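Below is a concrete protein record.
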Amino acid sequence: MTYPSHRQFHPAYGPPPRNGPGTTALILGILGALFALVPLIGVIAWPLVILGLVFGIVGIVRWRRGTATNSGMAVTGTVLSAFRTPGLLDLGRGTR
């Protein structure tokens, strides 16, 4: 009669990916782009796109280091925030 072995092999997992900043950058970039289109609420877009740009850069750095896996979200959030910032500057001048 054979008895089952009591040894259990557990696969070695690394730490979970830290995808928070990339996801946050995407959400803030989308919200900043949407709020910038509304005339009176466009002021809310300023902090959103600035924070989206910061979180996007942090997400890209984490992806390049290998601690994050969502490069697409980080890059898209950074691009949305970066392209919306000059648009807000242009809207701030007004027309004369």
